[in-house]
Amino acid sequence: MHEPIKRAIAFTIITIATLLLLYYFLRPNPTPRAIFNILSVAETIRDYLLSFKPFYIILSPAGSGSVVKVTTPGPSSTSRLVPIVVPSLELETRHLNVTVVYSSEVALSKTIAYNVVTLPSSNLTIPRDIDFSNVRIAIIYDDGRKLRVELVPHYNYTIRGGELIVDIFLFKCSLEIKERMSVRFLGYVDAVSYLRSYESVGDVYVYFNSHLVIHEYAKVIVIKVHYEVWSIE
Predict the structure, then answer these.
(1) 144-165 as b/e, with b when 16 or more CB fall inside 10 Å?
(2) Does the pLDDT value for residue 210 go beyond 60?
(3) What residues does 229 pair with on adjacent strands?
């Protein structure tokens, strides 16, 4: 009698251990899925911003980063828009420092604010590898606290007849938190212009965040700031 009982007990223990091991290896792992989904959301928002197409966001605070629905921007058709579901959404203010040097003297120094879209962190460290650009681009980065989608400040310039004109474009957005929000591009707004004029042509250096971006020769310097305006409401 003792031997069959021992075998039955051993079989039961082995069965339970096997089931526990199977559960451990086959159980759903929410963390990678959450990371994948929140990054997918950030990539989709980035793509929509670059395309200038409208889209919708649904706020679901109880859902966490693992409960999202993502769509890739397609042909422009409002009826085909599928909302992006996020646990939270915020706007953050960053600054671009603009310095203009004429013949070794500081002619202009300004700090210009712009907005960045922030989402819950993906729990990954993704570096911010660019501060500005001469083309319109958007980047995604994460410092472990927040995942950010940023339309990078960009610029272009012309030089003619001793006049240097620099156009700077920055992202500006209004936010009204609701359960369902529409995100739309409203247009460009000329924010402010700065003019510096001198008697003779000299070396002109333009720095963004202490990085040299333009070196030309001019006696008239015009800096124009334009905002790319969006609304989330």
Answers:
(1) eebbbbbbbbbbebeeeeeebb
(2) yes
(3) 172, 187
Least confident of 26-30, 118-122, 212-216: 26-30
CA neighbours within 13 Å on the CB side: how many for 67? 9
Return the amino acid letter for 206. Answer: V
Joined together, the tokens standing for residue 14 give: 């082995």
Distance CA 124, CA 224 (A): 37
Q: Which of 111, 208, 92 is nearest to 150 (CA)?
A: 92
Strands (E), the chain: 55-59, 84-86, 90-102, 105-120, 138-142, 146-151, 154-160, 163-175, 180-208, 211-232
Quote the tokens at residue 26.
């086959």
- pLDDT for 166-184, tens place per residue? 999 999 999 999 999 999 9
pLDDT value at residue 134: 95
The torsion region of residue 109 among left (phi > 0), alpha (psi -120 to 50) and beta comes to: beta
Residue that has been written with the tokens 């526990």 in this structure: 20
- Neighbouring residues of 44: CB distance < 8 A, sequence distance ≥ 6: 55, 70, 71, 72, 73, 84
Structure tokens at 139: 């980047």
Euclidean distance between CA atoms 167 and 107, whole angstroms: 17
Nearest C-alpha neighbor of 209 from the set 172, 173, 168: 168
C-alpha 160/C-alpha 162 separation (Å) is 6
> CA-based diameter of the chain, in Å?
112
Nearest to 224 by CA among 156, 159, 161, 143: 156
